[in-house]
Amino acid sequence: MSERNKSQEHQLSNWLNANGAAHRAALLLLTLFGVAAVVSQITLYWFLCSIAQTLIVEANPAQQSDVFSLGCAAFSWVMFEWSRQALSQRIELSISQQFQHRLHAQLLSGQYALVRQHNHFFWQQLWLEHIPAVAQYLVRYRIQQRMAVVTPLLAIILLFPVNWAVAAVLLVSMPVVPLFMYLIGSGTSALHQKHFVALERLGSLFADRLQASQLIHIHDGHQSQLNMLANSSKMLNRRTMEVVSLGFLSTTVLDFFSTLAVALVAVFVGFNLLGEIRIGATLSLDQGLFMLLIAPLCFAELKLLGRYYHQRSAAIAAAGELHPILNRPLHKDVDEKFNGFDLQDFESVVPRLICHHLSLNKGDWVQLQGDSGSGKSVLLECLMGQRPASHSVCGKKVLLTQHALITPATLRENLCLGHAYTDIQLWQSLEQVELKNWAETLADGLDTIMGERPPMSGGQKQRLALARALLTDAPLILLDEPTAHLTEAQHQRVSRIIRQRFQSRTLIWASHKTLPADWFNKHWQVKDSEVKVLC
């Protein structure tokens, strides 16, 4: 692994640990439950060995105190393990919800400007794969790291007074397990990253071909597309097997060394009981049996850490996707009054868009011109605060894009978006965009759930979004092709409504359709990644 990749992996690991700091107390309690469960298990083994010594060697019935202590230890072990599992699930759920809320806040802040930077399958991966991977890493792997240190040390401390030779064998052999785990596991995060990318691309490719199924049928391209999907699937399978084979190799190595070490302990205990080996103290049956039970416990925690090691790699790969999104500055509407702006050396980050001087006074109407893809939408999104830029605009503002978002809620909720409006205001806004007759035909009127039924055309969705904008009292209105999906006649009527309702406000209007020149007192043009003030 290169130094650059190691440095990046170290930074992402620190970022993951920092995000788990809010749950530090709960994670510490989870560790204590784990240690208590191990202590109860060791206590259970001790009383079990003591009872075996009494029954087999001494040929006496087991003492009631030992049986009672054995039962108490078993009950404690079960209860601590149950508490550990229950608390682990709660913390894992809490961490997942924490990341989900942060991602939700970023989506609310960035809106479509953020969503369109990635395909739909990428966002599905964030919710379904990456966030759970991070939660599992913080709850399982990080806790198991501590258990893999505490449990072997505790076992060696208990075994050393019984027979120092056995304790020395375990002390020497245990570091070999994490060493090989690191050697084999190094670089697995890169494999996980490649696997995630391949899975994302295949999912996006499949979704795209489903959407274009009619076009593929018209051009008789079924076979070529099937071949493409088959090749992509083979590539995904190959990368999946690379990750799986590495996991199997790691598990095999761990099992080999742990089995070898336990076998050495078993051979030593057996020959010591037979009197063939005199290294260390002579063992009794209960001591030998106790050693045979404790030795696998040492390696059990290390083997479990090895099985969880792939979760670290998956979490590092997930952090590489989550970190750039969750660390974006959040845009929030502030209560400051909008009085225009005067921006010097304005520049957006990605994609790059510059302007040496950009000013806007209260009440200005600006016509934003430029070819498709020149950066008009980028400029409006930067002014809205949805994209990182060198300057921000204070005050409440509204952006109406050409991609209307209709949520699966009621018509009323889609219009209000958390604000309180009267039914009269809602019906007036629908009437102004020529949707009143359509809304009156709905079964539940304003309380009708929006979804696949009733079906809405692109023009109806755009007019509904415009009706939503007409209800706002924001002093700055940003319009990005608001009539793109309307007919020419509808465009003229809706444009006049916009002019009538927003005439006293500040407005920036990007449109390819014809608009009266006397509506605007300023004209901006976006060309060659630069915003130019024409007049």
UniProtKB/TrEMBL annotation:
Name the PROSITE patterns on file.
ABC_TM1F (PS50929), ABC_TRANSPORTER_1 (PS00211), ABC_TRANSPORTER_2 (PS50893)
Q: Tell me which SMART domains the record gives.
A: AAA
Q: Where in the cell is it found?
A: Cell membrane
TM spans (from-to): 21-47, 147-166, 243-269, 289-306
Q: Which GO terms describe its molecular function?
A: ABC-type transporter activity; ATP binding; ATP hydrolysis activity; ATPase-coupled lipid transmembrane transporter activity
- Species lineage: Bacteria, Pseudomonadati, Pseudomonadota, Gammaproteobacteria, Alteromonadales
Designated name of the protein: ABC transporter ATP-binding protein
Q: Which residues form the ABC transmembrane type-1 domain?
A: 148-314
Q: Which UniProt keywords apply?
A: ATP-binding, Membrane, Nucleotide-binding, Transmembrane, Transmembrane helix
Does the keyword field hold Nucleotide-binding?
yes
Q: Which Pfam families match?
A: ABC_membrane (PF00664), ABC_tran (PF00005)
- Keyword Membrane recorded: yes
* Topology term for the membrane: Multi-pass membrane protein
Gene3D superfamilies per record: ABC transporter type 1, transmembrane domain, P-loop containing nucleotide triphosphate hydrolases
InterPro entries membership: AAA+_ATPase, ABC1_TM_dom, ABC1_TM_sf, ABC_transporter-like_ATP-bd, ABC_transporter-like_CS, P-loop_NTPase, Type_1_exporter
In what residue span(s) does the ABC transporter domain sit? 338-533
Q: Which GO terms describe its cellular component?
A: plasma membrane
